[in-house]
Design goal:
alpha+beta, six-stranded antiparallel sheet, six-stranded mixed sheet, 17 helices, 20% strand, disordered N terminus
């Protein structure tokens, strides 16, 4: 027994050390395993997605395209959240960033419209390569890089002309019967913010802002300075159909109208403190009466600016209720250049309103009350529920919906009659204006020293009417359209045709100048400067 005891001790010691060694090896294996496990920033839910992709790739009956499946999954997820959160491909993200920076594309900056077998230039971006090179509205594109463009689709021709920055394109075109050629260097094409600026009367100016980007404030400042030199004392700012854009641009625009240290917006974001945005400098339009025109397609950054002006009693708002978008979106990169643009917070006006409306709203919330609208159009006199009433920062009484901006003065949207819509849907209106402009361009330029003379001349209306009736009848007979052409053309239709012709022969500014002459919202705005609306609605003429 005494001899066996040492052997037992040795055996137990060997077993103990072997167990420790095995445990140590197991621990090292476990640590190694743990160190190589992927990091899942989304927690267990993202593991589930990873397993799903693994099983599809490993066991699905056919081959799968993982990149496509991941994109479908992300788009589907975001679609369930809100209408504004979305997946952005690399191309979509780049396009949005270009638009924010005031760039529409890389190319030469022209718009085309088919005329017989050719492509006619109907618009040229001011300051773009085509404009600098000398192309003009009405030029007919014949060749691109020595290849014929006859009988091709407009998008095919446009894609041939577009191209990367600093590359060249050769364009052969016809102007007034003379064939010419230009070599144009492609470049970033400006996406202008100000669409039009002109005087409506000796003292009232008009500026149309089509979008908010980093060009908004400098372009507005330039237009404002020009109009002031022409004698402008009051301003109509048209934000109808402006879907928004860069919020910083809307804050910067408010700084042109409001005095220093005025709150423009504040935000509440997910996992972030309240952020406030104030005016910082002396603006170019801190005095003088201002009217802002809005409609149901005035959204986002446009609403932020309008609400600030309304809450500080700085502007009279005329039109219909705005869209109602008061949510903050931010793009987050996904590693391959694509991104998720998701809603991260809400905007609030200086008086504390959130302009975000219902996702399912289909009509202006004022519609049920409009039978009680007074003749002057003052919306605050409507018999709305108490919860729809609010006061501005200076205690001015107004009404508001859950979202959007309610105008101080309601003016219905322009609606065309069925006959007009029928002709327009058949493609008889704008194409006529293009054809008339092309065939009469030289005669019009010789007959009228400028677009303003064309706009004011009433005799030309008779020529337009006669030419349109002939053109429309020929098209109706040739295509067997089921429409009876009326013997005369309504003043509204003539005015629209004349506005399109004015834009083709002179400039886009001329389109708005002619269109504004019969626009009910513009006419009501002009009336408001003279009839005491600013005083009656307790508005200020200073920021």
């Amino acid at each position: 027994m005494n001899n066996s005891f040492p052997l037992l001790v040795v055996f137990l010691l060997c077993f103990f050390f072997q167990s420790c060694l095995s445990a140590q090896e197991t621990k090292q294996e476990t640590s190694a395993s743990e160190s190589t496990e992927p990091t899942y920033y989304g927690g267990d839910a993202s593991k589930k997605l990873d397993w799903a992709m693994f099983y599809l790739q490993s066991h699905y009956v056919d081959s799968t395209h993982n990149d496509y499946l991941v994109e479908v999954a992300i788009r589907s997820m975001l679609k369930t959240l809100d209408p504004f959160s979305r997946y952005q491909s690399i191309e979509e993200l780049e396009k949005q960033q270009q638009a924010d920076n005031g760039i529409s594309e890389e190319g030469v900056g022209i718009m085309l419209y088919p005329l017989d077998s050719k492509a006619m230039i109907t618009d040229i971006t001011i300051g773009g390569p085509a404009d600098k090179a000398g192309l003009k509205r009405g030029d007919l594109i014949l060749k691109v890089d020595n290849q014929s463009m006859l009988n091709l689709r407009m998008d095919t021709i446009a894609n041939r002309i577009k191209g990367p920055d600093k590359t060249f394109v050769n364009i052969t075109y016809n102007r007034n019967g003379v064939t010419q050629e230009l070599k144009i260097q492609r470049a970033p094409v400006p996406l202008h913010s100000v669409d039009a600026a002109h005087m409506l009367t000796e003292e009232v100016g008009f500026i149309k802002i089509g979008r908010f980007n980093f060009l908004t404030v400098p372009e507005f400042q330039e237009s404002l300075a020009t109009l002031k030199k022409e004698g402008m004392q009051s301003l109509i700012l048209d934000l109808r159909n402006n879907l928004g854009g860069v919020v910083d641009a809307s804050v910067g625009l408010a700084d042109e109208f409001l005095a220093k240290k005025k709150l423009v917006i504040f935000t509440h974001s997910h996992n972030a403190e309240r952020a406030e945005h104030y005016t910082k400098k002396n603006g170019g339009m801190e005095s003088g009466k201002v009217v802002i025109l809005v409609n149901q397609s005035t959204a986002s950054a446009s609403e932020i600016f309008t609400a600030a002006m309304q809450d500080w009693d700085r502007a009279l708002v005329i039109g219909q209720s705005s869209y109602g978008k008061g949510l903050i979106q931010q793009s987050y990169l996904l590693g391959d250049g694509s991104a998720m643009r998701i809603t991260i917070g809400k905007y609030f006006t200086p008086a504390g309103r959130n302009v975000q409306g219902s996702y399912t709203a289909t009509q202006d919330w004022l519609i049920p009350y409009l039978d009680k609208l007074p003749e002057n159009g003052y919306t605050r006199q409507l018999p709305v529920p108490q919860e729809r009433k609010y006061t501005t920062r200076n205690n001015r009484s107004l009404i508001t919906d859950v979202g959007g901006i309610t105008p101080d003065i309601y003016v219905p949207a322009i609606t065309n009659n069925n006959y007009y819509n029928q002709l327009n849907n058949l493609g008889l209106l704008f194409p006529f204006a293009v054809n008339f402009s092309h065939n009469s361009r030289q005669q019009l330029l010789q007959s009228f020293p400028d677009g303003d003379a064309f706009y004011k001349n009433q005799e030309i209306n008779k020529s337009i009417e006669k030419a349109f009736l002939y053109y429309a009848q020929q098209k109706i007979e040739a295509n067997n359209y089921a429409v009876a052409l009326q013997p005369t053309v309504s003043p509204n239709m003539i005015n629209n045709l004349k506005a399109w012709i004015g834009a083709q022969v002179w400039s886009n500014n001329m389109y708005y100048q002619i269109f504004n002459a019969t626009d009910p919202a513009v006419l009501r705005a002009l009336e408001s400067f003279e009839n005491g609306d600013f005083g009656a609605l307790e508005l200020k003429s200073k920021g």
